[in-house]
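User: Could you check the structure of this?
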Amino acid sequence: MKTHQKSTKKHLSKACSLSILGIFLFVVIGVFGIRAVHYSPAKPIVIDHHNLTQSQASSLQAVAVSIGDVQFFLADLPSIHHRIAQLSWVGDVSVRRDWQQGVVVSVVPRRAVANFGSQHLLDANGQVFVPADEHELMDPSLVRLYGSHSKDADKIMKQMRQINEWFSPLGIKAWDVTLTARQTWLIRFDNGLRVIVDHENTDQKLYTLALLLQNSLAKELPKIHSVDLRYKNGFAVAWRESH
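Assistant: Sure, the predicted C-alpha cells are below.
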C-alpha cells in the first residue's frame, strides 16, 4: 500500500514538474515572440501590379510611400485600406499579409463607360471618378455626359440608357447627354439629330417622339436637324439644310 502511494506521489510530482516546465517554455516562447513582433524590421508596402496601368501603379506607389514602411504583424491593415480607397479611380481594395512578400495591396480599378464633363469619367454604377492618368479624360470612344453636379451623374446615365432603349429601333443612340442646372435635357444622337426637352413629362415626350420617328415621321428622319420638345401641345422641328 505504501509502495503504491509513493509511486502515485512520484507520478504526480513528475507531472507537476512537466506542467511547470511547459508553462515556463510557453512564457519564454511568448516573450521572444512578442519581442520578435515588436523588433521585426519594417518594410515598404508591396503593390500588386496585376491589371494596372503604369499611371495607376505609380499612383498607388505614391500613397504607399506616404504611409511609409510597416511591420508585418503590427501593420494597421484597415488604415492602409482606407488610404488606398480614397483614390478616386480605385474600385475595390484588398490589403493582406503575405509571408513571403509582406503587406500587399491589390486593387481593381474603376472601368469607365462614359465621360462626365471634361474632368471626370463615369463607371457602370454611376460613380464619378478622376482617372490616374489625365490623358484618359475626354476619351473619344466613350459617350459624353454633362451635368451641373456630380450627384446628377447616375440620373443622367439612367436617362441615357432609357433613351437608347426607346430610339434603338431607329438604329441611332445618344452620344451627348446634358442635364442643365434648370433640369433641361440636351441630347445629341450619333446620326447628328439633336433633341431638347424640359423637366415636365420628360419621359413621355421622348417616348412619343421615338414612336413618331418610327412611324409617321420615319421618312423625314434623315432631314431633321433638331427637335424642340419644350411645348405642352406639340414640338418644333428644325430641318437640315438641303444641298
